[in-house]
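= Paired protein data =
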Amino acid sequence: MTSILQPQKEGTGTYTFSSRPRALQNRNKYRDPVPEQNEEQAQYGNIMYDRRVVRGNTYAQNILPISAQTDPIEIQRMQEARRRAVARKRAKEHLRPRTPEPVEGRKHIDVQTELYLEELSDRIEESDVQCQTDAFLDRPATPLFIPAKTGKDVATQILEGELFDFDIEVNPILEVLTGKTIEQALLEVMEEEELASLRAQQRAFEELRNAELVEVQRLEEQERRHREEKEHRMKQQREFLRLEKESAKKIAARAFAQHYLADLLPSVYSSLQDNGYFYDSVERDVETEFMPWLMTEVEKTLDKRVFGRTMLDMLIREVVNQRLDVFEKLEQNRHASE
């Protein structure tokens, strides 16, 4: 049940209080970020429902004394630093490469690229839970741990002479330690001498091996030179034999060609002469140059004579035709006059 303060009428100074039942308003699951202006503002008369009242205990609230309050200069300095940080962040955001503006009809959206997707919502689900607890008390100091005593106390009496004499009992131990130390030192010295002798033997062996390797390399190099010289000589001998064989073949071919061509040239010349391959230059010049020129000139002369005769015939025909026309006209005139 809630109680509502009724507005007081003008002219009355008395306080009136009334509480009547009414239906609760349907409230949304989430609060609206901007309350509507036309929403009816209810005036609560019970401080348990007044939102201006702080809920919970006030023991844990830290109220600074006047001397512990922050200096205004320090506050101003912190605000300046915060402002510079915000400006620096804005500059970085401005200099950072951004995605170009979307084309007309489209818009950019945020896309999740993580391995596991999560549901995105405009508002965060929240719920109000209240709990009243007592103030925390100071924890007392932990007491020093002292274990409980167990068993029985006993005592032992030691008479004079029962404990060992250190000066007497320490001699065997010192002798053993000294002997072991000397023995270990001797063993180390012998080991070092043995290592030195092994190194000397190894050095001598390496020198002998290096000398043997040098000798082996010298012998291998000598054998290689001998082999190369032998191969070079064999190559020269093979080249000499090849040239000698080629020269012998050339000489034999030349002799055979001379013997074969001894009777060939006269027979070839006689055959060519019989077939007309050998001719007189004057006769050939007359046949190839003079006779064609003569025939051409004769043809030209004959063509000129034929052309002249043709022209003469045409002139005679034209004159005869003209005379015939004149005679026909005269005959017609004569007949017309008769």
Remarks:
- The chain is about 55% helix and 0% strand.
